[in-house]
Amino acid sequence: MSDEVTARTLWNGDYYNEGSGKDGLFDKLKEECGVFGVYRHPDAASLSYYGLHALQHRGEESAGMCVSSGPDFNYHRGMGLVKEVFDKDMMATLVGDIAIGHVRYSTSGDSKLTNAQPLVFKYRDGNLAVATNGNIVNAPQIRRELEQSGSIFQTTSDTEVVAHLIARSPKGLVDAAKDALNRIVGGFAFLIMTNDKLLVASDPHGLRPLTMGKLGDAYLFASETCALETIGAELIRDIEPGELLVLDENGLLEERFANHNREHRKALCAMEYIYFARPDSDMNGANLHAARKRMGSRMAVESFVDADVVTGVPDSSISAAIGYAEQTGIPYELGMIKNKYTGRTFIQPSQELREQGVKMKLSAVRRVVEGKRVVMIDDSIVRGTTSRRIVNMLRDAGATEVHVRITSPPFKNPCFYGIDTPDRRELIASSKSIEEICREINADSLSFLSPEGLITAVGGDNETDYKGGLCMACFDNDYPTNIDFDGEEKFGCGC
Ligand code: SF4
């Protein structure tokens, strides 16, 4: 579709995220949490610090770490980035050789220190610390039952529900953890620590990523392999869906709490491949940068458009833009620059300054796009507002045509497994056709990657795994778990 009249009519002068606050104009999806664990390393706290730092993109609101020295737990949690929460003096107090750590993003209103993780408890057998990434769909129901039978909760976090289930069980830790993990439904990666044990678990579908590495004799666990790479650890393998690893004085015990079967199909979050995870991470043996390049390349095959330059919305879409450019022969150019220093700003531009074009987060490179037909690659369209601002920004910098190519299928349904998504009514693709969205975001043409193209690009195999082992529910409404408990849908993040 090429409709310059529409372009002029819809142009409203808004730019991409001028700085109206975290939840204002910025409508990208938010990753919820990252976890990092160490078993038996004398520098457990330092390794966790660097590991969490590498996982910072998964959550910027709070960070925390709990270290066991054997008899004691030493822990600290705070609001802010890892480098803000932990200073040298604080790190010196975190003595011990087993550790779990956490970075968290939370939905607004829920952003408070009491919910920062790891959560730490005293129970009958000593100390217990829990850190998780994900969301438990039936947590409200279990919480109500526990409260009715006398439990008192300190936080609004789902993680505490699991701690209560473990603490109230008459069984030993491992059996109590298995019972608790079988009771909960959702997408989760758990690290559970006692004074002398570390338990590591992934939900029965493997919705949230979790990986294992080794450094010397020490075992390490992280949401993404980039954290292992950062500290020089060797990657061993991804944690399997339904697996429960137990690390204690007997070494590593590889147990399961749920079997991989038809009911529990493998379903790793497709958005990890598309957008969330760092491009230098590997998932299921595939490097994310390479997978995103293949998405771009496949996109070019599925919906080629003649143009002068290809550019990607930084940072997550640069790899896909390179793939699109390689496949088509259209040159890849740096058409947009992201300002990396806008994390926390208190001074926002006034309306007047905005009208003058003050852009805090993203700028178009005028010399690259001026007078050019531009293919703009992005990873997803949520409400449509961000896409419209970026298209308008490119047009204002002189692009003569802007063709938008999205390296995921249309995002139509909310996530119940730990990704903060708006209500279905706010998701533009749930109610509008591709042509309507194209007009809404002011593009000359718009295409989305097909589900088959996505599965192929990430190396998934439809023959061996349903949907290539991916969760794609936000595209196709086919959720791997039951999501409606007591008529109550619970989406977003429960960490
Ligand atoms: S619903 Fe979408 S965002 Fe949520 S786990 Fe599935 S693929 Fe990921």
Automatic annotation (TrEMBL):
<keyword id="KW-0411">Iron-sulfur</keyword>
<comment type="pathway">
    <text>Purine metabolism; IMP biosynthesis via de novo pathway; N(1)-(5-phospho-D-ribosyl)glycinamide from 5-phospho-alpha-D-ribose 1-diphosphate: step 1/2.</text>
</comment>
<dbReference type="InterPro" id="IPR029057">
    <property type="entry name" value="PRTase-like"/>
</dbReference>
<keyword id="KW-0315">Glutamine amidotransferase</keyword>
<keyword id="KW-0808">Transferase</keyword>
<feature type="binding site">
    <location>
        <position position="474"/>
    </location>
    <ligand>
        <name>[4Fe-4S] cluster</name>
    </ligand>
</feature>
<keyword id="KW-0460">Magnesium</keyword>
<comment type="similarity">
    <text>In the C-terminal section; belongs to the purine/pyrimidine phosphoribosyltransferase family.</text>
</comment>
<feature type="binding site">
    <location>
        <position position="269"/>
    </location>
    <ligand>
        <name>[4Fe-4S] cluster</name>
    </ligand>
</feature>
<dbReference type="Pfam" id="PF13522">
    <property type="entry name" value="GATase_6"/>
</dbReference>
<dbReference type="InterPro" id="IPR029055">
    <property type="entry name" value="Ntn_hydrolases_N"/>
</dbReference>
<feature type="binding site">
    <location>
        <position position="316"/>
    </location>
    <ligand>
        <name>Mg(2+)</name>
    </ligand>
</feature>
<keyword id="KW-0004">4Fe-4S</keyword>
<feature type="binding site">
    <location>
        <position position="378"/>
    </location>
    <ligand>
        <name>Mg(2+)</name>
    </ligand>
</feature>
<dbReference type="GO" id="GO:0004044">
    <property type="term" value="F:amidophosphoribosyltransferase activity"/>
</dbReference>
<dbReference type="InterPro" id="IPR000836">
    <property type="entry name" value="PRTase_dom"/>
</dbReference>
<dbReference type="InterPro" id="IPR017932">
    <property type="entry name" value="GATase_2_dom"/>
</dbReference>
<feature type="binding site">
    <location>
        <position position="471"/>
    </location>
    <ligand>
        <name>[4Fe-4S] cluster</name>
    </ligand>
</feature>
<feature type="domain" description="Glutamine amidotransferase type-2">
    <location>
        <begin position="33"/>
        <end position="250"/>
    </location>
</feature>
<keyword id="KW-0658">Purine biosynthesis</keyword>
<feature type="active site" description="Nucleophile">
    <location>
        <position position="33"/>
    </location>
</feature>
<feature type="binding site">
    <location>
        <position position="415"/>
    </location>
    <ligand>
        <name>[4Fe-4S] cluster</name>
    </ligand>
</feature>
<keyword id="KW-0408">Iron</keyword>
<comment type="function">
    <text>Catalyzes the formation of phosphoribosylamine from phosphoribosylpyrophosphate (PRPP) and glutamine.</text>
</comment>
<feature type="binding site">
    <location>
        <position position="379"/>
    </location>
    <ligand>
        <name>Mg(2+)</name>
    </ligand>
</feature>
<keyword id="KW-0479">Metal-binding</keyword>
<dbReference type="InterPro" id="IPR035584">
    <property type="entry name" value="PurF_N"/>
</dbReference>
<protein>
    <recommendedName>
        <fullName>Amidophosphoribosyltransferase</fullName>
        <ecNumber>2.4.2.14</ecNumber>
    </recommendedName>
</protein>
<dbReference type="InterPro" id="IPR005854">
    <property type="entry name" value="PurF"/>
</dbReference>
<keyword id="KW-0328">Glycosyltransferase</keyword>
